[in-house]
Input
Amino acid sequence: MMTKRRLHPVAMVTGVGRELKNVLLPLLVVVVAGSGGDFSWRDLVVPLLVLAYTIVAGILSWVRFTYGWDDQTLQVEEGVFVRKKRTIPFERIQGISITEGIWQRLAGVVKVHIETAGNVPGEAEVTLAAVSREEVRRLQRDIEQAKEQAEESNPWNDQEKRLLSPPLFTLSVKEVWLAAVTSGGAFGVVAAVWAFLSQLGDLIPYEALFRNVQATWNGHGRWYIGIIGLVALLAAYGVAIVQNMIRFASFAVRKQEDTIVITRGWLERKTVSVPIGRVQGVMIHESWLRRLFGYATVSLIHAGGALDGGPPGDVVLCPLVKKERVSSIVHACLPEYDLDVTFHPLPERAKIRYMLRPLYWLMVPVLLAAYIERPWGAGLLLVLPLAAWIGVRRYRAAGWALSSRQLTLRSGWFRQTTTYMLKRRLQSIEVSATWWQKRKRLATISAAVMPLGTSARVVDVDGQDAAAVYRWLQAERKDET
Output
């Protein structure tokens, strides 16, 4: 017998608050623009009606939203004017992530995102905005029991016992701070502020501000403007550091039978469950700054949506970890993957191509800038040998490795990425060669896994090696046990 349940009232409060936040700024612009400088109380009639409608619609949405489940299915009904009913079999559910915002934590509830095999990547099939922790545990237990019965596997272990499993990886306070400092994100903050200010074009006299800035620039205020820009960038960097520290606080990774459970967050506590069977590959990211301190970032290629707020198919397993610990952590979570591989370097004849590649698009603008700003612009010519040196570093970093059941590709230097892919997870391997590569007997290897668009590649591999990798995938795939 399926009992219909309603979300906690905090879901109504957060839902109404979210909608009010979305309409508040447009309504403010309408009031200011419509008054024309001669404000009247009649100018508030339409905005007040919109606010009242938003509040009433939010309350009705909460009242009309119900959910429930039995031994095999989850059922959700929603819609104010048009009722929509969805029934989801438990075996289709591929992942559950749990978020605890400030309001949810105050009310003692959580926000649940349920992902299924057929939903659009990056979007949850069902979102339960405010559910008690006990109900989430019961739902997870019933889902797992249904899957175990379908697969005739071992009976379900007690959920509370599983939650007590020791973490395989945690971040200390120092590592949280270092991860936040080296994550960047300042330009993302600047872009967000710029997008917000662009919505206020009717309220802020940008043309007059631009003329004032231009007059100051043409005068003696270049250093003054430069200092203001630097301070603004540093402030944005500080905001990004605080955001990342809040995001990575209390980070922990646990393995619970066939599921990897990742918890993180301070103001918004989040729990992400990644079924091991849905992991398509492992990626190791090393930015040049983190590489100086011997750290790296580990992420999983997940055949599904954006479970952790990142791009679809990408779940961060370790935001910051010492490189010597990466192999043991990944092996504890995913024993099939072998990270201790020996890479084949690129042939010597590929070095000149890596040196010249950045110069193709730098040569003309640098020479023009050096000529226009002569004689001091001649210093810009130093960019060209620096770019060639970076090309050499990228050449030395690139490589590939092959075993009976795994392909590994590595590329990049500023952000070096190493991708480990099991043979049975590969969707395709493409070997291509341009006219210039054919002259040097070189080729490009591209390997793709699920989800669509997730791939890794290495440029200017020896042509015979690329052909060997291609034949390796075409060969009969033997049982990998």
Summary: DSSP finds 15 helices and 21 strands in the chain. Confidence is low (pLDDT under 50) at residues 153-164. The longest strand covers residues 279-287.
